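Example record

Each entry pairs one chain with its bound ligand, iron/sulfur cluster.
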Amino acid sequence: MRRNLGIKMEAALLEQERSNSLSVEEGMGTCNACKQCAPLGACVVFKGIEGALPMLHGSQGCATYIRRYLISHFREPVDIASSNFSEETTIFGGNRNFNSGINNIISQYHPQVITIASTCLSETIGEDIHRLIFEYKSIHEVNKDLPEMIFASTPSYQGTHYEGFHEAVCAVVKALAKGDKKFGSHINLFSNFISPEDIRHLKEIVSDFSINAMVFPDYSDTLDGVSWRTYQRIPEGGTRVSALKKSALASFSVELGYILNAVCKNGRIKTRSLSQSAGEYLQTKFNVNLCRTGLPVGIRETDKFFQLLSSISDRSIPLKYERQRGRLIDLYIDGHKYVSGKKTIIYGEEDLVVALASFAAEIGIKLLLCATGGESGKLESTLRDVLGDMYSNETIVGQGMTFEQMEGVVTKSGIQPDLMIGNSKGYYIARKLRVPLIRVGFPIHDRIGAAHNKLLAYEGTTLLFEQIVNALLESKQRRSSVGYKYM
Ligand code: SF4
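Structure tokens for the complex follow.
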């Protein structure tokens, strides 16, 4: 298999020489993918709903893997129920396990909402989970206190954790939003896969514009809570179900991210309903205005976000943020000599890569490779649009990439980067190349504090810029035979 991968890699690299844009070929083996599984993304969204308990319809191993991944990133307990498929369930169907799983969740957790994601196994055997929910509700209709039950279809072979995340956002809105054509003064802010600290920061920003916003998903407390005296089975916090129901009555939906869950170019995802985002659904079904902008990282993308909030609220940008912007520009001036002309590899979820690339380009860092495990087919065109004349045709854009391929690109090109920006999974490449890794995104398993990573807006960019400059200085000090005390 490895030999085969090597041959395919050669082919991919030849193709790269022609177009500078890489993608995984159909049927190619995958080693160390630059992505996670789709229900994992869905579970993050489910943790952002008040009173919700996630359940996976599939085998126990899927829930265990996802819990392990989320716990070691967020450093919080994460309960995820499972319908525990066995050999028999796999052959004859999982309705009995589904029903007993729901019964156990209701009796032990008393949730407001049970959020259900499918797994590779339940999708492969063709489980009709909408029907299972319908039948369960029909049998138990005498129980008026049944929780809401929401289903997101998330087979991992048709999408990454990023698509699973957006599929879940849309599924929740589709299940709960109700409208009667009287638009309110509130907005929906679909905040994308960001850290709990960034969710808090976004809430602070919209509040400073006096905007009444439903931020979804809001896992800022559920995945980054306080210390408890007694264990809480469902932690406090999350977007309220009542607010989600009113999302159809909002005056605007704001979505952060240009790509979100776009349809895959090569057609692999065409069989799914993944092409629609929550904002697009609300626009089509309830006429809620949709505004989309990128994740606000760097001056240019943050300016766009603040201009949007200013026009929605009809208020000028608060002085507090003008000052933060001014301090960030001053910092750029102070630090430009350390970053200008440096070369980097950026990888992660597509919209995060776009945001980080835009920031890196505006501070003069050259983009050697922009890589993602996603396969929307939109990364390169979005980078060109967002970066404009800062985009370089020399940048290699890799979609559907593995970490092995990323390493292969560096080896083949013979160009040594000065740093890498991405999640912990790329650490071994950074270690081999002896360059600093700036940890952003998901997962961050080899450091603590991932939940507190502030990346967004002027303040988040300030922290990121300082982190990058200091990592480069540290690297230079380590490599120097004499060392520097003053740089
Ligand atoms: S089997 Fe599929 S859903 Fe389960 S952990 Fe693996 S990739 Fe995820």
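The first strand starts at residue 21 and ends at 23.
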